[in-house]
């Protein structure tokens, strides 16, 4: 290959990295993780209190669905993105 072909081949490869839009330093993890932990503890407590008459598998399913929804919202809040260079 000629030098020009190698130059174009290297330019096409690039570099791809994953990053969070709202996280700039390790200290930025503290507020969202603390809020998520408090919210998840509240959801578990609420479902344990309100679903006393339901069968255990249904209770577990409802808690899992609600926690999954909150985990999805937290992920969207943190703005995941791929950066290509």
Give a quick precis of the structure.
With 85 residues, the chain is mostly helical.
The helical percent reads 55-70%
**Shape designation:** elongated
Radius of gyration: 22 Å
The computed structural class is mainly alpha
Unreliable stretches covering 5 or more consecutive residues? none
Number of H- or I-type helical stretches: 3
- List the secondary-structure elements in sequence, H or E: HEHHE
Mean pLDDT: 83
Number of strands: 2
Description:
The protein has helices at 3-13, 30-50, 56-77; strands at residues 16-20, 80-84. The longest helix has 22 residues, at 56-77. The mean pLDDT is 83. A two-stranded antiparallel sheet has the order 1-2. It contains 3 helices and 2 strands, in the order αβααβ. The chain is mostly helical and 85 residues long. Helices cover 64% and strands 12% of the residues.
Keywords:
3 helices; mainly alpha; 85 residues
Helix-strand blueprint:
Elements: H1 3-13, E1 16-20, H2 30-50, H3 56-77, E2 80-84
Antiparallel strand pairs: 1-2
Helix pairs in contact: 2-3
């Amino acid at each position: 290959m000629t030098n020009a072909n190698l130059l174009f081949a290297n330019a096409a490869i690039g570099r791809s990295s994953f990053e969070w839009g709202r996280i700039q330093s390790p200290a930025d993890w503290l507020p969202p993780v603390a809020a998520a932990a408090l919210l998840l503890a509240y959801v578990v407590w609420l479902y344990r209190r309100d679903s006393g008459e339901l069968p255990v598998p249904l209770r577990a399913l409802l808690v899992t669905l609600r926690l999954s929804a909150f985990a999805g919202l937290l992920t969207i809040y943190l703005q995941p993105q791929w950066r290509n260079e």
